[in-house]
Amino acid sequence: MAIQFRPLRDRVLVKRLDQEEKSPGGIIIPDTAKEKPIQGEVLSVGAGVRDDKGALHPLEVKAGDRVLFAKWGGTEVKIDGTEYVILKESDILGILDGKGAVSAVS
User: Fold this and answer.
1) Cα separation of 50 and 85, whole Å?
2) 28: three-class secondary structure by DSSP
3) Could you tell me which residue, 2 or 5, shows the higher pLDDT?
4) Which residues are CB-contacts of 20 (< 8 A; sequence separation ≥ 6)?
5) Angle at Cα 85 formed by Cα 52 and Cα 97, nearest 5°?
6) Is 50 within a domain?
7) Residue 73 belongs to domain spanning
8) Is 19 within a domain?
9) For residue 68, what is the domain's CATH number?
10) In principle, which of 33, 37, 78, 87 could form an S-S bond with 16, CB 3.0–4.6 Å?
């Protein structure tokens, strides 16, 4: 199903990836105690930003990238009943390579 949303400029549409339901020690974490995931999959990106001379600079991230982003960054939206986060590219901390688990440290 294609998403009917296209971010503008340096905005990125991200779907949060679910966190593990167990702690590393094997304790099951209830939904009420879970924090929002800080990683997600990029679904769509804007065209980029223009510099003072009008030249377009495309974004470094692309659709399909797994990214790590600021815990409280972005704007949460629902599109067709599914929750997404719209971030500026500067709110993205990095691109994740591989399948390793990432969690926030308090």
Assistant:
1) 23
2) strand
3) 5
4) 29, 101, 103
5) 85
6) yes
7) 11-96
8) yes
9) 2.30.33.40
10) 37
Number of domains in the chain: 1
Task: Tell me if 62 sits within 8 A of 44, measured CB to CB.
Answer: no
Quote the pTM value: 0.74
Backbone phi and psi for residue 33, each to the nearest 5 degrees, phi listed first: -100, -5
How far apart, in whole angstroms, are the C-alpha atoms of residue 26 and residue 11? Answer: 37
Residue 86 lies in a domain: yes
| Residues 12, 45 contacting (CB under 8 angstroms) | yes
* Distances from the Cα of 37 to the Cα of 18, 22, 40, 61, 67, angstroms: 6, 14, 8, 19, 11
pLDDT digits (tens, 9 = 90+) for 50-90: 999 999 999 999 999 999 998 888 899 998 888 999 999 99
21: which DSSP letter?
Answer: S
Instruction: Say which residues have a Cβ less than 8 Å from residue 3's Cβ, sequence separation at least 6.
Output: 13, 43, 44, 79, 80
Question: Could you give the maximum distance between any two Cα atoms of the chain, in Å?
Answer: 55
For residue 90, is it within any domain? yes
